[in-house]
Amino acid sequence: MQTAGLPDTFEVSGYKGRPFSLPDKLAAAVYALALLWINAYICRELFHQDLAPMASMHGFWAALAERAQGSWFHAAWWPYWDGGMPFEFTYAPLVPALTAAWAAARGIPHTIAFNAVTGALYCLAPVTLFAMGWILSRSPGYSFLAALFYSLTSSGQLFVPDEASLKSFWYARRLYLVASWDDTPHLAAVTLLPLIVLLLWLSLRERRLIYYASAAATIGLAALASAFGPVIAIISVICVVAVHPRRDYARNFALTIAIGAFGYALAASFLPPSLVAAMRSSSEGLTEPPTWTVGSLTALALLILGWIVLWRCLNRWAAGTWLRFLALFALVMSSIPILATHLHRRFLPQPGRYQAEMEMALSLLLVFGAKIWLERAPQSVRRAALFLILALAAEQIVSHRDYAKNLLRGADPAQTLEYRAAQWTAQNLPGVRVMMPGTLAQWTNAFTDVQQYSGGSWSVARNSMQQRGLAAIFNGGDTPEKDARVSLAWLKAFGVGAVGVSAPGGQEFWKPYAHPSKFEGILPVLWRDSGVTFYRVPQRSASFAHVVPEPAVVRTGPLSVSDIDGLESYNSAVDDPSLPLAGFQWDGRNRIHIRGVFAPGQALSVQVSHHPGWHASVAGRDVPIHRDGIGLMWLTPPCSGVCEVQLDYDGGWELRLCRWLSSLAIASLFIIPVWVRIRRR
Questions:
Q1: Read out DSSP for 252-307?
Q2: The overall pTM is greater than 0.70
Q3: What does the angle CA 224 – CA 59 – CA 188 come to, to the nearest 5 degrees?
Q4: SS3 478
């Protein structure tokens, strides 16, 4: 049985039914070009000018693109954020890599290149949505309307509104999120989502190697785009397999699991298991509420109940395979933000962010659901409805364009507070680790190579103690006096030589400090501008290496932000004038030279984040490196008197193994098809 206008079987060139004719392909090309033109017309400023949206993480992505250098191809340490981290722990690399490539190809600043990448993704997302709908439904006109609806509305606002107003349904929320906020990497994963669905579907129906490899490669790219990529790939697998015949469930799940595993192998060099563990722990850290609670089971139970009820209803209504998929897909994608917003229950981190996937699914479901009724209506009604849709679309294009003109106004980053603060710091505090506040932390390394105590993304933070210290510096106590004492303990323990504080009423946007005046009269002022003040943190030495008594090393991590007894004991040892100073020098990013005078019972504390990829040697002899209670390195040099210690970073066995796995997987994309062709011959 077949619902009007919806094929009950999947038809595509090479499987069933007639192949796509030349007129079909030309019509699809016209629709795709129309979608590209509409979206490019709306956001055209993104392709050629700097916007300097300082209340965003755009500087973060530009910094990754500009300073990555050879980190895409070999293990490299990133010394600029959070006391240092492996490059793989900075963030998903796809958008920064595209930005770096575009900047190099065009010879333009990385900030402008990032805007261009954002604009390209903004234009491509509706096109990939159209391509999936067209190929799987063989309805190019309705697929175009679904992609147009997605381009010009914010359908998720009907269910998870930002404000209690239907006007939010009509505003260009997607453009705002990428142009003024921080959603470009997420948009990259969303752009790939329709292709993941399409290629998984083709893999199950065609059983051809080309589709297996393409699906795996697309899943791998989505994982490299954003942490949302693997999650939406798993959801896609479940929904695609579920609408295929039950007798094929076992082999289809086995096949999709194999495709997903190969996709992970392709992305493994930038997605090691330790990074996955860090993302899981950070989602339940100081910034986000816990993901898993008792209420999470309730949320899953509601989703399962809704799935079963919808499944039975769809079977009763004899809906085609395509519509069943759209309904189930929209149910899952919508449930994530709706349950979190209205019932305050979550089972995934950052559930509100899934509104982007929700809008894509709803656009398809609403249009193809309406298709059933439109095709039963008289032709005059269908023509009138089409005229109304196009008239509303024209209004929305004009409205979105007017909004974009105001949103995408060009600006010079060199005229901003963030630029001035970064340049002053680089010129006046060379080699000093600095605590930058709010937006300054996100933009400093887009302009300079200052080493920061902050700056990284909490969602992939590897050192949870550093994140705890960051929270302590922002709010370490109920009173300014207590807050100042707690903050100083954490700052000194991490080798921070200067701290920036943004005051209420200043230009810095986020203003994260609970007591912005807490350092006044306690620390000397270095610089003031537009509501931001930099204070000097007292240090005996700006070196990140210190000779301390071994018992002074912080052994256990503080249980709370105000648990600073161990930190103060360590800081007292670092400031002890009776102990010798140690020299510290970077040799590139992956090598550190330390020179000091040691005696029995003393340890070398290095205020750089610990990672198994660091290895120490003295006179060619390996020395074990330990992790202290706040995530930094320490060791006991096997020498007495003057001693030179060399630390080298190679990524460690995990990252090396992941890079080998990715290299083999990428090579197999080219080798396996050739081998199969040879075997067939």
A1: HHHHHHHHHHHHHHHHGGG--HHHHHHHHHHTTSSSSPPS-SHHHHHHHHHHHHHH
A2: yes
A3: 30
A4: coil
Backbone phi and psi for residue 503, each to the nearest 5 degrees, phi listed first:
-100, 155
Residues near 435 by beta carbon (within 8 Å), at least 6 away in sequence: 452, 453, 454, 473, 491, 496, 498, 499, 500
- Token couple for 393: 């679309």
pLDDT in tens, 80-111: 999 999 999 999 999 999 999 999 999 999 99
**CB-count burial class (<10 Å; 0-12, 13-18, 19+) for 238:** middle
For the record, the structure tokens of 675 come out as: 């081998």
pLDDT tens for 333-356 read 999 999 999 999 998 989 999 999
Q: Which domains does the chain have, with CATH numbers?
A: 24-69+92-181+387-411 (no CATH), 183-270+651-681 (no CATH), 272-376 (no CATH), 416-536 (3.40.50), 545-650 (2.60.40)
Describe the crossing of helices 321-342 and 294-316 by its angle, rounded to 10 degrees. 150
Token pair 């949302």: residue? 228
Share of the chain above pLDDT 70, in %: 96
255, 257, 261, 263 alpha-carbon torsion, rounded to 10°: 70
Tokens of 10: 């999947």
Distance CA 227, CA 301 (A): 24
Q: What is d(CA 498, CA 419) in angstroms, rounded to the nearest whole number?
A: 17
- Give dist(CA 616, CA 622) in Å, integer: 6
List, in sequence order, every residue forming a beta bridge with 643; answer none if it has no partner: 596
Residues present in the chain in total: 681
Supply 293's token pair: 């609670």
Exposed, middle or buried: residue 575 (CB in 10 Å: 0-12, 13-18, 19+)? Answer: middle
User: Cβ distance 599 to 643 under 8 Å?
Assistant: no
User: Within 13 Å, how many C-alpha atoms sit on residue 335's CB side?
Assistant: 20
Hey, which residues does 452 pair with through a beta bridge? 434
- For residues 250 and 636, the answer to whether their CB atoms sit within 8 Å is no
| 272-323 tens-digit pLDDT | 999 988 887 775 555 567 777 888 999 999 999 999 999 888 877 766 889 9
Shortest CA distance to 457 belongs to which of 106, 234, 261, 186?
186
Q: What is the pLDDT of residues 436-463, one digit of tens each?
A: 999 999 999 999 999 999 999 998 999 9
Cβ-based neighbours of 331, under 8 Å, separated by 6 or more: 303, 306, 307, 310
Read off the tokens for 64: 């990754």
Within 10 A of 655 (CB to CB), how many other CB atoms are there?
25
Record the tokens describing residue 245, joined without a space.
């015949």
Please check whether residue 21 is in contact with residue 211, taking contact to mean a CB–CB distance below 8 angstroms. Answer: no
Tell me the two tokens of residue 235: 């959801």
